[in-house]
Amino acid sequence: MKEKTYERENAYLSPYAKKSAETAGRLKEEEACAMRTDFQRDRDRIIYSKAFLRLKNKTQVFFAPDGDHYMSRLTHTLDVSQIARSLARCLSLNEDLAEAIALGHDLGHTPFGHVGERVLNSLSACGFRHSEQSLRVVDKLEKDGRGLNLTIEVRDGILNHTKDGAPMTLEGVAVSLADRIAYINHDIEDAIRAGYLKSEELPAGAIRVFGRDTSERINTAILDIYRESLGQPYVRMSEEKAAALDELRSFMFERVYERANKLIQESAERMLGELYGYFYGRPEELPALYRDLLKEDKFDRVVCDYLSSMTDRYAVSVFKRLYVPKEGSV
User: Fold this and answer.
1) pLDDT per residue as tens digits for the range 128-154
2) pLDDT of 21-47, one tens digit each?
3) What is each CA distance from 18 to 96, 222, 239, in whole angstroms?
4) Mean per-residue pLDDT for 244-255?
């Protein structure tokens, strides 16, 4: 089956695609799978990782929303994967590589969304960026400290998925674009559902370019990238669509993200600040994996490893256990 995949890729993929047989390999050599390409194998490793499972209980924008239809970090990740695969398919790029990068791009995200990321960045002398932490998760933290040993291309795409990143493959660029298309459009949907916005308040110019409906906006973005990038050594939007997407992004930061963040900022700062100080001063109370990491990594980094791995509800439960008196206690 693997050889058939190689044959199909050679026959049908763009000359600018990263073919599975041409991977730069893994950090540690290992026996190849007889059935799956290395990129397909990476995808499977990510899906069955503990960090991937935890994404279902991590905030995307709204913390503990009152309703079952809001985006979580997991549903956002699946959304990015779907858009990235659509882009890869229509541009004849490597869909397996794009999917693996997309599924792994947010594995290092903190509880409480970007608020949690900012809090850990301010607390740690090492700094904290979720893209760098996602790479650390797959390289070092998963599988009880052994890591997933992913391919160079998937690791690069995970690290460079943010707007300021420079991925080494077009598949990585497609994921970076898919991430922005996904979070802007579905965050708009969530903000309207939560009462933060009315659809008529969206910037008229951007809506004229993309459309008022979520599905229409995503389809317009994918079609624009297809028209702009097919057969080219790059993946990008047209200038008009890129400017309109930036306008929507700026609007969301001004009207939604900052407002939503303020609602949980104080609580997240207090909880993560107290937990950071507690475990920094009591390393013996860290789980075994993180105690072992202290033999080779700085306290700041390891405490951030543990706190960023927490889901929203687990962070709250640990804080309650440590700082909230139990009923009947004296």
Assistant:
1) 999 999 999 999 999 999 999 999 999
2) 999 999 999 999 999 999 999 999 999
3) 10, 20, 26
4) 92
| Of 174, 170, 266, residue with least CA distance to 222 | 174
Sign of the alpha-carbon dihedral angle for 155, 156, 157, 159 = positive
pTM above 0.70, yes or no: yes
CATH topology of domain 37-318: Hypothetical protein af1432 (1.10.3210)
Chain-centroid distance, C-alpha 238: 24
Cβ–Cβ < 8 Å for 26, 39: no
Which residue pairs, CB below 8 angstroms and at least 24 apart, start in 35-39? 35/1, 35/2, 36/1, 36/2, 37/2, 37/5, 37/6, 37/96, 38/151, 39/94, 39/96, 39/97, 39/100, 39/151, 39/153, 39/154
- Residue 54: helix, strand or coil by DSSP? helix
Tens of pLDDT, residues 208-239 = 999 989 999 999 999 999 999 999 999 999 99
Domain ranges, ordered by start, for the chain? 37-318
